[in-house]
Design a protein that fits this description.
- This is Uracil-DNA glycosylase-like domain-containing protein.
- The protein has 256 residues and is of the alpha/beta class.
- It has one domain.
- The protein is built from 9 helices and 8 strands.
- Helix 2 packs antiparallel against helix 3.
- The radius of gyration is 18 Å and the shape is globular.
């Protein structure tokens, strides 16, 4: 899988009818009910200071990225311009996903560290500071349902191949960036990569929740004054520990 992969799918993206979620023409690989589809998420930002790491693009992100790449290609832009535009529009797109992510970033103080008025600028005027990515770069579905960590990507041969060929390559290319794991499933894989010495522990920031809509009530509680009882299935300890470690390391000792 190379950065020119979009060239293999440009004709499909630009067909008279825009591709849909899990469009069979975009199927890249499949094994035992695990299906990997193409969506243009291969752009890597060489100047990124932080890398926001999800699990895999979901259906909303897949459609938004494909539609933006389609728009760019039909407008005569190059494939390089198309994948960059698609990443900017599609990554962590949709609500409440993006809002939940921005709330956490602001609560931790990423905007202060990076010298921004608001972490929302990372998806607007300050895109040069961030790389948005996933452990599994391309959309993965299991029996037509969203992939949520099962089967284990570090053991399943198809998913492990995708992880090593793409995400590990990003780790090696973005030597000066820190990686922010979004949710315990992501953090588990990042910890595995640390054990394998693919990632240095000081380059990983953990503790944030995955910004999916299912976590909205937990995120709203964690960023609040917490006067109400702890919500069901919410453990504030990893979040608070991660936030405290981040602030001690980046806000108390470093300047933007």
């Amino acid at each position: 899988m190379k950065t020119t992969l979009i060239e293999n799918y440009a004709q499909i993206l630009c067909a008279p009818q825009a591709p849909t979620v899990r469009d069979p023409h975009l199927l890249m690989d499949a094994k035992d009910g695990v299906n990997i589809y193409y969506a243009p998420f291969e752009y890597i930002n060489p100047s990124a200071r932080i890398v926001l790491v999800g699990i895999t693009p979901g259906p909303t992100q897949m459609v938004n990225a494909n539609n933006e790449a389609r728009r760019a290609l039909l407008a005569g832009q190059s494939t390089a311009e198309a994948i960059r535009a698609a990443k900017n529009v599609g990554a962590f797109s949709g609500e409440p996903l993006r809002s939940n992510l921005i709330k956490q970033l602001n609560h931790w103080g990423f905007h202060t560290w990076l010298g921004l008025p608001d972490s929302a600028d990372l998806f607007a005027t300050a895109r040069h500071l961030v790389q948005t990515t996933s452990l599994l770069r391309y959309p993965v579905f299991v029996n037509d349902d969203d992939y949520r960590g099962i089967p284990d990507m570090t053991k399943h041969p198809l998913l492990r191949k995708l992880l090593l060929e793409n995400f590990v390559a990003e780790v090696e290319e973005l030597q000066d960036a820190v990686f922010v794991g979004l949710g315990p499933s992501v953090q588990k894989v990042l910890s595995n990569l640390i054990q394998q010495r693919v990632l240095k522990p000081e380059r990983v920031i953990g503790g944030m929740l995955h910004p999916s809509g299912n976590c909205t009530y937990r995120i709203n509680y964690l960023i609040s004054e917490r006067m109400a009882p702890v919500p069901h299935a919410t453990n504030p300890v990893p979040y608070d520990h991660g936030r405290r470690a981040f602030r001690e390391r980046f806000l108390l000792t470093c300047s933007p």
